[in-house]
Design brief:
single chain, alpha/beta, UDP-N-acetylmuramoyl-L-alanine:D-glutamate ligase, 10-stranded mixed beta sheet
Length: 448
Amino acid sequence: MPSSADAPILTADAMRAAEAACAASGTSLATLMERAGAAVADLAWRMASGAPVLVLCGPGNNGGDGYVAARLLARRGVHVRVAALAEPGTELARAARRAWAGPVEALGDELAFAPVIIDALFGVGLSRPLTEDIAARLRGLAGRRILAVDVPSGVDADGVQAWTPALPADVTVALGALKPAHVLLPPAASCGKVVLAPIGIEAQSRLRTLPHLEGDTPGAAAHKFSRGMALVRAGPMPGAAALAASAVLRAGGGYAILSGATSVPFSAIIAERGENFAERLLDERLGAVVIGPGYPPGAALDRDVAAALKSGKPLVLDAAAIPSALPRLGDTPAILTPHAGEFARAFPGLEGSKIEQARAAARRSGAVLVYKGADTIIAAPDGRIVAAWPGCPWLATAGTGDVLAGACGAMLARGGDAFDAAVAAVSWHISRARAIGPGLIADDLVKA
């Protein structure tokens, strides 16, 4: 789980470009390696608490970071051993190897026990899965405390390939910037706690982790309409829409209407039978419309989506409402909230990582995407992306997506940028779930 809010995330290619730019501006790659090794050594020092450390070094610059870490740990008095997969293959790694004064063992089948292991074998440079012989050697080291340098060996740093590491990490130190693998499943689950170590690289990226957002306190002059008026259109399963309407209020909206329902969970929600849906859409105070929760595909949904699109009001579209609206969405401000199955139906044929797919779908639709899941991705058409890993596992229960749609409606109804609204809604959703914890059901998210 990443430890930093609003932190930059760089692909392997973008990281290499950032390192080159740093070197061009006067900070040598050797200096960056020294800083990286120092960050690794500092974390290993705390993990080991005086116990011996085994450093596994690969042939590339990731291995060079390992040699630097070994030298610095030995200087602190730690009993350090180094095992190498192969001789260093880059000049930087060779220089780091020469500076290590101790012996180097072969990474074989019978390495002596060490309670803490630094995995500096491959890092972000891996372009194919580990061979079975290397994987078998690493599996033989299971049971130790593992500190991975950048990513555990065997992981695709860009999160495109679902490779499984033979030696999952307890802690991963991300050098200079996080990588997509730290925030996307399945690799994120193998990274353990991810600690970002700044090493002097200017990591500019439009892809970032979820920011830490405080609750938006209404101003002294606020009133119910200035805080946002949202309408939720109910379908044949009104319970889902009721959850969404409740979330409008709990997430900070000032006025919630549940259209197409005869009863409401809270007296503060306005229930309307729904015959005047098209007329209600003309209300100038209305800041957002939520359609999709509990509403299966069909002529009725298509008709309501068409009416909402015609009104020009900002929309939150969930489930079957997404493919219904996409061909006609145009320039309508919208937040789309699909889970994986709904995303595949609405945007077939997209390839790449979840981040790349969300970016492409946002660009294609012109809408903000909240691609839901344990590794939720929020993407804007202009290229801004936020990764919301880790979420909260207690959200894996029916109805929580309907609550998120309502929260998006509350944030969107206030006016302003749809991407910022989606980010705020996801942040509220996760923090609310964490506060509730075990046994959470969707109704809990909207109760006091």
